[in-house]
Amino acid sequence: MVRLKDEVRHVGIGLLFGLLGLLFGLFWVVYLTANHEQIHARLSQASVLTVEEKPVTVPLAGQGEQVSHDDNHAHLHEGHATGQPAASPETAGSSATYAHEDKGVTHGAHSSPVMAVAHGRLAKAHAHAMGLGILSIAVSLLLALIPASPRSKTLAAACLGTGGLFYPLSWIIMGMRTTSLGISGAEASVVPLIGLSVGLVGFGLALTLIYVVRWLFIKG
Q1: What is the CATH number of the domain that holds 174?
Q2: How many whole angstroms separate alpha carbon 143 and alpha carbon 137?
Q3: How confident is the model at residue 45, as a pLDDT?
Q4: 67 membership: H or E segment, kind and range
């Protein structure tokens, strides 16, 4: 009993991180459910800010000149001030811009494919946290039962647990950045974190596999 307790202590960090991953997964799905509208509004606001921060240049009808989105606003206000009819949306080229902004602030149902992808990525964080948490606990218990050096067991369990926590976090960051950076841009922004997470989990699993194979098939 004392020996088993010592072996479990060697992989305690993997068990701890695995349990934290399970708790995080449960907390995250409850948070998403209870704060869906607030999250949707935040994602929409990030999308609108992105559009407003970028000047939009459009050609004037029948001319080769370019005017910015801000110039369109100034031209429209000038028309109101002088009592003259303002330029039409077709001439000013602002119709598409306003439609895009209105789409960004729509609440309730997912207003665009990008918004749907953002929410999907946030939901996947729950599934990955639960799955990797269970994996970390199971592999850590396996490491406690097979013959291997204490340092190797601790290293493998720590890699699994750490990678299992970082990977769901990368999906949350990716989801929150999707409306502001775009689908591909948000994915590219978390590639280093995803690479680190996958590398840690892969290394922990590979090290565990080596010790399992040696235990089962190599005598000595």
Answers
A1: 1.20.120
A2: 10
A3: 86
A4: strand 66-67
